[in-house]
């Protein structure tokens, strides 16, 4: 993990290598205004221009996770897997989540990393 210049965090080369591999499913944890947690599998992409994780889906603005982020901007995101016989690997991102409704296209949740923790990425 490398600290960013604006109080955030940047992904290391090993973390980006892992994320930009074949992993397309992550898990997004949000909480509503009362703090009730909600964790779901999601599609996502790395936004290299902003250094963020962008989470998307069909009719995304109508989902609970989108409403949660509107009420409570704190979120966590994880991508993980296990190599045989037992070698877990993971990148965990905690940060500020921003609901984005572009003028043309599907709504998304943009996660601005504050903390990035990873393990098992060494060969």
UniProtKB/TrEMBL annotation:
Picking any one GO molecular function of the record gives: oxidoreductase activity, acting on the CH-CH group of donors
Which InterPro entries does this UniProt record tie to the protein? F420H2_bilvrd_red/Heme_oxyg, MSMEG_5819/OxyR, Pyridox_Oxase_N, Split_barrel_FMN-bd
Keyword annotations? Oxidoreductase
Quote the Pfam families the UniProt record gives: PNPOx_N (PF01243)
Q: Which Gene3D superfamilies match?
A: Electron Transport, Fmn-binding Protein, Chain A (2.30.110.10)
Q: Does the keyword Oxidoreductase apply?
A: yes
Is Oxidoreductase set as a keyword in this record? yes
Could you tell me the superkingdom of the organism this chain comes from? Bacteria
Q: Name one GO cellular component term.
A: cytosol
Report domain Pyridoxamine 5'-phosphate oxidase N-terminal positions. Answer: 15-104
SUPFAM superfamilies the UniProt entry points to: FMN-binding split barrel
What is the protein's given name?
A: Pyridoxamine 5'-phosphate oxidase family protein
């Amino acid at each position: 993990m490398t600290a960013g210049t604006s109080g955030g965090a940047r992904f290391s080369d090993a973390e980006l290598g892992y994320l930009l591999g074949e992993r397309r499913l992550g898990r997004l944890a949000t909480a509503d205004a009362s703090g009730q947690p909600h964790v779901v599998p999601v599609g996502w992409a790395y936004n290299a221009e902003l250094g963020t994780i962008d989470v998307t889906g069909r009719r995304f603005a109508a989902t609970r996770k989108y409403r949660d982020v509107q009420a409570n901007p704190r979120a966590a995101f994880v991508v993980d897997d296990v190599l045989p016989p037992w070698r877990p690997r993971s990148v965990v991102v905690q940060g500020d989540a921003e609901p984005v409704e572009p003028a043309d296209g599907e709504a998304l949740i943009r996660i601005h990393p504050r903390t990035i923790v990873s393990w098992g990425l060494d060969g």
